[in-house]
Amino acid sequence: MIGMKECNSKYCNCLYYSANALSRVMTKMADEEFAATGLSSSYAFLLMTVNDKPGVQPKEISEKMMLTQSTVTRLIEKMEHKGFLERKHSGRNTEVYPTAKSKKLDKKIKQAWMSLYKRYTAILGKEKSKKLTDDIYGAAIKLHE
Predict the structure, then answer these.
(1) Which residues contact 101 (CB under 8 A, 6 or more apart)?
(2) What is the CATH number of the domain that holds 19?
(3) pLDDT tens-place string over residues 82-120
(4) Structurally, how many domains does the chain consist of?
(5) pLDDT tens per residue, range 100-110
(6) Cα separation of 110 and 119, whole Å?
(7) Whole-prediction pTM
(8) What is the domain extent for residue 13?
(9) How many whole angstroms separate alpha carbon 72 and alpha carbon 68?
């Protein structure tokens, strides 16, 4: 749909192909917006999740971010190493907490997220962006079941 071009590929009617094409475009756009924070979009969303709920467990993070637990563990370890997060063990559970460094960056991360929203809604329009987001998320949930 770039520039409303007609489909000239046999793949553009494939959900897999279209979803991945959208993902690549959105990831590039998100990484450009989150660059102001010094973080990739994945790390920024991780910090927002933990900043919003200190003590959150990795399993809940993986559910909220729709990532595997092993991916979340790797992201947490990297952010812990950089001084943004810390893990504490409570019995058999692990809880993840933001550090002062993470909390200090929270406003900047949320501004970058808003910039991303404004950027894609300026292109697609607010209504279309909302509908597309709802449709894609709904499909992801249904296909994940």
Answers:
(1) 83, 84
(2) 1.10.10.10
(3) 999 999 998 899 999 999 999 999 999 999 999 999 999
(4) 1
(5) 999 999 999 99
(6) 14
(7) 0.87
(8) 2-144
(9) 6
